[in-house]
Write the structure tokens for this entry.
Amino acid sequence: MPGQKFGPAWFPGLIAVGLAICGAALVYKGARRTVPWVAFPEWMQRAQSRAAVIGVLAGLLFYILAADTLGFHLTAIAIVGLWVRILGASWRVTVAVGVLAPIVIHLAFYKLLRVPLPWGLLERWAF
Amino acid sequence: MGVLSQAFALVFDWYVLWVILGSAVFGLFVGAVPGLTATMATALLVPVTFFMPPVPAIACIVTATAMAIFAGDIPSCLLRMPGTPASAAYTDEAYAMTKKGQGEIALGASLVFSVIGGLFGTAVLILAAPALAEVALKFSSFEYFWLVLLGLMSAIFLAHADPLKGIVSLLVGLLVASVGLDNPAGFPRFTFGNAELAGGLTLIPIMIGMFAVSEIIRNVAAIDRPWEMAQAKIGNIFRGMWTLTKRYPAPILRGSVLGTAIGALPGAGADIAAWMSYAVSKKFSREREKFGTGHVEGIIEAGASNNSALAGAWIPALVFGIPGDSITAIVIGVLYIKGLNPGPTIFMNNAPAIYAIFLVFILANLLMIPLGIAAIKGAKQMLRAPRAVLLPVILLFCVVGSFAINNSIFGVILMLGFGLVAYLMEENGFPVAPAILGMVLGAMLEENFISSMIKAEGNPVAFVTRPIAGGLALATFIILLWPLAARLLRRKP
């Protein structure tokens, strides 16, 4: 920035230098070892664990993409249902938790704390 | 006396007392369930405290974390799994005691000496913080620069990890902190023209991601591993505790002192305090050979240590705005939101609120006795809570909490992104605490660095000519060069 000796680029510049040095050191250290470059954790070989982790991440991604259009309530019921079922609960528990958890969150956050959770498709019936 | 009576009025209010009770139960539960940590409890509470007045908001976090650190010992005894990382140091020891039929003593000792350690740490906090604030009033940007740097360095070198990876983690945190307009020049950095990024990255969704979502991913990956509970008969928890107190006064005191000190050092909190105290206890014990076979001495010392560390961590957090552990890293954000800006002047400008926080610390530690007994008795029921229900509900709570801070879906994106980053970092041996510290302290470090550089007109010598600044600089370099020096010394026999 003109007229300023110590401008906004100084600090990120120092961070970049530091990261470059540390990165080089890590590469040097890593190059001397003989372990494989990429290794997958042991849980990836277990079907239920793999499905559960993918389900959790997919659910969160779905919420980010869909919450504004579908609304909080529908999205929450869908993802909580998905998560409970994928973690091994029975259908009865899945439906109960899937419906109850969003209702409790609605009462606590929307009603009590006045967080404007999006209604989306249900806008017409908002209460 | 006016201030103290005001503080009493602030705490002994029905609303505040209910908040304390509620957060105590919440803290005990989160602490007792393996995989849910005290830091996670704090991150989950922030969106709720957002809507509370300052004193109950802070009281909520203080109580929940104190309870959680104690309750972390319960599954150590019953499941051989630490409830929070702060209990990991003596999990095997506690489980061995249960196997020997001494589960009752192990649980009792955890409770009683947690309370003693917690009260000790609180006493030090009450006495040391205002005194330190007097000194800190004289600090200029040079001292603050070194103090922040010293804190960041000790965070790296106290952690049980490769220092190189610790530095990388710290630098990533500092980089995250430099996003946005909030820098000394007020110039937009790394914003890519995006309005959300111009305001800087909001820390609370990031912390919910790094402490809660990453932990949930880890839990979910182990969902097919059932928990096996050991049988422990639990009668009168306090039987034999007085004998233990009389038998081990030195370990209790040593654990409390070391715990408070480690807590007060930036970046290292209850978990590192417990590891260190357990090691110290073993080193100085007269019955060293009994360690590892179900011996109570290490549990006493490390149990006192991790609870005293909690209060110790608040000393630098309140006086300098430098967090002593990852819990206070979150708390500092809450303090700013509530208008209780940390710094030496907090003891003058907000004295009643600060004394109210001190009172809450005492109250929470005393409340730990009755509620702790109830938690130990009800441990079996708590540990039977199905993870298939618990984890999804917590995750939905994380989503809504991250959204609620700015009422923006961007918070949820940050939460998911940083949750994944934190998970990958920890799986590959990069500690998360330095990154968090870098994010919290980045702005402060830069501001004091740039204004010192401007004052000194670019002359680096000015950074060390003031006596306290020079001393802090020396301490920073000693910590930085210590691993190298130690290696050189070891090489020469």
Remarks:
- Residues 253 and 298 of chain B are 13 Å apart (CA to CA).
